[in-house]
Write a structure and sequence with these properties.
By secondary structure, the chain is mainly alpha-helical. It has one domain (about 5-195). Helix content is about 50%, strand content about 10%. The chain is built from 10 helices and 5 strands, in the order βααβββααααβαααα. The strands form 2 sheets. The protein has a 3-stranded mixed β-sheet. Strands 1-5 form a two-stranded antiparallel sheet. Helix 1 packs across helix 7 and helix 4 crosses helix 7.
Length: about 200
């Protein structure tokens, strides 16, 4: 077990893997429809620079001191949503290449929080303030906001419907095709293998 199992979180509405994949497809249909037709990497820079700001979602680079314990964080305000991304990740996105894989996954993960959890958090704000968070270890995965956001990230970066059409959907090929790390491609197979 990892350190994250002792972290405390607020449970979110339960969501199934296939339902989260459907949400990711819906978002891709809006932001990069070609990714639902053919295997291609998601244009993360266009997503954060042009597309998401038009929906009131702004990605902002911040120093390591501002986010000492995480790589990114989603914050909700009355005016919209701000996603803080540590500068080292931000810089990797601009450089591209293999070192950008983790940053791409982080952006997709935070986009999952924006899509899956921000609307719920806004609706349930008063209730959440009254309830105590629970230890992640004691929470079913399908109610864990982090599990849900990572499931979204996997389906967003490697759309299930497109992966199903690939002749070679090995983790190595997924990594090369969608510009994700081998570890993330392996996670995709573990999470979505039964749906392929």
């Amino acid at each position: 077990m990892g350190w994250w199992t002792n972290e405390y979180v607020h449970p979110v509405s339960p969501k199934r893997t296939r339902d989260i994949a459907a949400v990711a497809d819906h978002v891709l249909a809006e932001v990069q429809p070609s990714a639902l037709v053919q295997p291609e990497p998601i244009d993360i820079l266009r997503l954060i620079d042009l597309t998401l700001p038009s929906y009131g979602v702004h990605f902002v680079p911040v120093s390591h001191e501002e986010l000492p314990d995480s790589e990114a964080e989603t914050r909700i305000s009355a005016g919209g949503v701000e996603v803080l991304v540590r500068e080292d990740h931000w810089d990797e996105l601009g450089r591209g290449g293999r070192r950008a894989h983790r940053a791409r996954a982080t952006v997709a993960h935070e986009t999952g929080h924006v899509v899956l959890h921000v609307p719920e958090m806004r609706r349930r704000a008063a209730e959440l303030h009254r309830r105590s968070p629970v230890r992640r270890l004691d929470l079913a995965a399908f109610r864990d906001p982090e599990w849900q956001a990572w499931t979204f990230a996997l389906a967003f970066l490697m759309p299930l419907r497109v992966v199903r059409t690939m002749a070679d959907a090995t983790p190595a090929n997924l990594s090369a095709t969608f510009l994700v790390s081998g570890a993330l491609a392996n996670s995709f197979h573990k999470r979505f293998g039964s749906l392929l």
